[in-house]
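Hi, here's the filled form for the chain we discussed.

Project: internal
Contact: R.S.
Residues: 338
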Amino acid sequence: MSRRSLSWPPIDPYLLALLGTVALAALLPASGAAADAVGGVSTGAVALLFFLYGARLSTREALDGLRHWRLHVTVLAATFVVFPLLGLAAKGLVPVVLTPALYGGLLFLCLVPSTIQSSIAFTAMARGNVPAAICAGSFSSLAGIVLTPLLAALLLGGSAGGFSAGSLVRIVAQLLLPFLAGQALRRWVAGFLTRHKKVLGYVDRGSILLVVYTAFSAGMVQGVWHQVTPAQLVALLGVEAVLLAVMLALTWYGAGRLGFGREDRIAIQFAGSKKSLAAGLPMASVLFGAHASLAVLPLMLFHQMQLMVCAVVAGRRANDPAPQPSAADPGRAEPVHR
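And the returned structure, exactly as it came back:
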């Protein structure tokens, strides 16, 4: 990805497609038998997504990346410990700044795994440790399949659209089992996936658009959007801006205090401060059911915000004078041989 493509302000074309899908759901929501049919197809699409995630993840690359264990533990701690703690702290903003429904979506945002593609792109732009960013994003996505539902059960409880033992069964059936099936069949399907990477990319994105349409259609039918005012959306954006700023600062300065070198600090900052829209949307559809529309709104807003802010940060990091790596630097990870 070129530096120009990440210049300010980067507008993700796929986010425009998501917003168009939301508009379609607002104008023509699926209801009755149509909603049942769309919901069934959406369930299958989520399972397909996680099958493809499992089939694409190279087990060998994941094992090679274990040599970066300090870096990966740092990213995982930022994603699944620090983020959730900040989300819990934001509960003090209810109900003055955030409504309970929007707070539930904000807390869910804090439980979602890190993104892979944009973390790699920004790390490369800033002249950071790209192999480490690749492995960190992959490990985060893998851990999120298990940790995100478990943290949601622990922290969201009944606010997650009636989260229950039945929800855990649906999570295993729609997320974990397809992922494990993809890993088991990877040796036979990896070649096919590589040859048809472009077409399957459209399948990925189309599946997520279907999930979004299903969630927002249910929200329209139930009238949940009458619960949100423009002032509340502005307040949500403000809270998310503070959340992103805090995580960018903590990951950068915290990694420095832990002894990591400049290139590793860059990988930690971009992998540890971002959240995956592609992983979060299908998870929300399973966790929140009919309440998923409001639950994914904070994630969609945060996604665009992180792209815009991180583009600026990466551009400035690219202009920093890079010190020569030292063999005695304990924080610099060895590059992954790919």
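Let me know if anything looks off before we file it.
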